[in-house]
Design goal:
This protein has about 90 residues and is mainly alpha-helical. It has one domain. The protein has 4 helices and 2 strands, in the order E-E-H-H-H-H. A two-stranded antiparallel sheet has the order 1-2. Strand 1 and strand 2 form a beta hairpin. Helix 1 packs across helix 2.
């Protein structure tokens, strides 16, 4: 099971522990994770960081709210990381 923490809130899914937040780093505790999995964790982390960036905030909001599910879209990344998108949206888009 992995948990993603951001701003004192957490997301849960299968895997290993991660900490992701606007000013946090991703800590991958298991060296067996594929490079692709690590890549998509990094993309999600960057999008969370972008919420706190004046220049990128609007684009990040659009990305999180998008209903697209093609490669690289928020919904697709949640599927790859086995995270529930609605839970993440509730916690991040406050």
């Amino acid at each position: 099971m992995h948990t993603i923490h951001t701003s004192g809130k957490e997301f849960t899914g299968k895997g290993v522990d991660h900490e992701i937040g606007r000013n946090d780093t991703i800590g991958l505790d298991n060296g067996d994770l594929s490079p692709e999995y690590q890549l998509w964790c990094s993309v999600l982390k960057q999008a969370i960081n972008d919420l706190g960036d004046k220049a990128e905030h609007s684009r990040a909001i659009v990305w999180f709210k998008s209903s697209r599910n093609d490669v690289g879209a928020f919904l697709w990344i949640c599927m790859i990381l086995n995270l529930e998108p609605s839970n993440i949206r509730k916690l991040i888009l406050v």
